[in-house]
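Obj.: predict assembly geometry.
Materials: sequence records (below).
Method: joint structure prediction, all chains together.
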Amino acid sequence: MKKVLLAPLDPVHDNAVKLLKRKLSEAGYDAIAMRPGTTSEEVIEKALEERPIAILVSRTLGYKVAETLGRLVDLAEASGLREMTRLGVGGMAITKETGGELGFDACFTGELNMTEVLAFLEGKPVGLQTAGNAVAERQKPNIVQGFTYAFKDKEIETLLDGIVDQILEWVKGKTSPGIERAKLRAEMLAEGISLRSPAKVSLTQQRLREQYLALCDDTIRAFYLTDKLPAGVRWLAAAEIEAMENLLGSAKARYSPLRHVGEKPLFFSQYGTGCPVMDVMHIKVAEAWGVDGVLHFDPSWGAQCEGLLEGYLSHEHDGTILTLENLKFIRHAQEPATLWNVRGHRGLNTPETQVLGHAAGADLFKINIPYGSTAGGTDPQRLTVDGVYSLRLAAEYGIPFDIPGNDELSGVPPFKTFAGILIMVALGLKLGAKPIPKPLLCYSPYMTIYGRMDDNMIDMNIAKLMVWREIVDAPVWPGEPVGFMTHSPERVQSSMMTAVHAALASSMGVDAVTIASSDEAYSKGPISAAARVDTLRAVRDALRFQGSVQLTPTPRALTLADEIHDGICEVLKTVAERGDFVASICEGLLGNEEDGLYPGRIGAGTVSGGRL
Amino acid sequence: MMQKALDRVVDALDVETFLYAADEEEARSLAEQLAAELNLPHGDVVFLEYKGFGARVRIRSYIHHPGDRYRWLERGSSK
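Observations (raw structure tokens):
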């Protein structure tokens, strides 16, 4: 058994040594721990006697650090010990610079990282290089893997079957400018053609350009025909892109999951500062602090405008413009194992967004017809036609899609929102796609008005998660983000609310969680990189605090879950009886004016073909 | 030429402190004055909570807005 000598060169502190002794013993080493107050001479004497492969020195107190540790290194040199024994140092008083300057072979700073310690003992490189290798070996997680999508509630399954059949019958023969542009965009990608004119224009490009622009709004047409940029948009210079890529090449952070135990949930954060370069910086910060995935948010005007732009474009307001170039740049900057979701569920470019997202390497899409055609503002007919087409694309590409339930933020009760999500689940499955329901953990208007969370915020949120497990064997991904409407601009409060919601969701065994930054409730400026770190740090510690502890639902949580479950059944019965999904949305069966929902108007009258 | 540390601020610079003040109005006024004294461009009071003797306050100034030319990006340009 290989020996390792553990020496606390510190008058009193030896906790790290005790911890290391246990961990090294578990790893199969003979770890010999000396007592606090040991002198450098005693350490060398013991090492000459035991002949360890390494001496690991711990130092907590900050005074005389260089003198004490330098003495040890000098003695090790003089005794010839260094020919067979390597020296490592760590502890609160140690910085990378201290260790290197004093002549140690390795220096461990921050929290104990056994991977690095063991790598050092095995003679492997320590530090960023090792960490980089670990990142490269990390496999991209698959959220939907292992789920059968079998319905446990057969009544709901039957109701959904009927609703989905009606939707698919209704969309037959129908199309929209969004669908036609998606087809043209797919053709352009296959031909390697862009709409912005090179010097020589082929006949194919000319045809595609004319057809595409005929389906666009004036803002988009002006961009392609006269180079006029929409307000607040500018070209990114090639030098800016290149400079960011250079920065990316010069640094690499070690992946350290937020989870303290287990492989789930995966943690996602949203980005969309408006500028792809700033987005990349934020994504790298989020990755470094432990996220597993990121979600792309585009500008709200982009969803209300027929047609998409091209090129590297920066936008001075929230939401980053959907172009193939922007998306590819952002994807390229991410770690290979980072999951990437491209949102396209609520606007006039939903199908084309799926085409671009797929071309850029998206792992996940986001499509919710009931939400997008009410709170999202898009006409229900238009989004139903576009949404079904988008689900077909998701199935064809093999890309799972998530279904956010953010219409709850308008005041919709969870059972109505969940009924809408379930229709999307069934619709996606029927078309061969893999859906991921996203119940929102929030303090919504419905909860405040009707006092459903007056006592606590746990019972209702547990109920909202439980009900999904009762209905269908599908992944569950609370979002978007968790704790919505519980945050304030006070960053400690905001981070804490995110953390407790994330920990609650984690204890309920969910598959993924979307978390906010501590700027969630600050509306007068963009989210800062530091605000992302605040929340990620808080979530990490909440998960550390909680470990593998699971919460047992209270009787009230069970009652609430029953209420939601029954409510879902009633809503689905009503929609099934109505026999018209679009009419059900327009008539408020999935959320009405009293719930704060109104049918969207954007894109009204643009569906053609079939029987309207 | 050596860059200023301020150039490396990725986006926002927050200043957090506790201000002794007679009431919330004075605290807000002092927070804005503090931003000006620290030469923080367009300082904004993100959070202010007054209780009794003074206010817990966070002031923010964006050194780089999304879409700006980021001075921290110059480090990549020199390669």
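Conclusions so far: Chain B has a mean pLDDT of 92.
To do: check interface contacts against the pulldown list.
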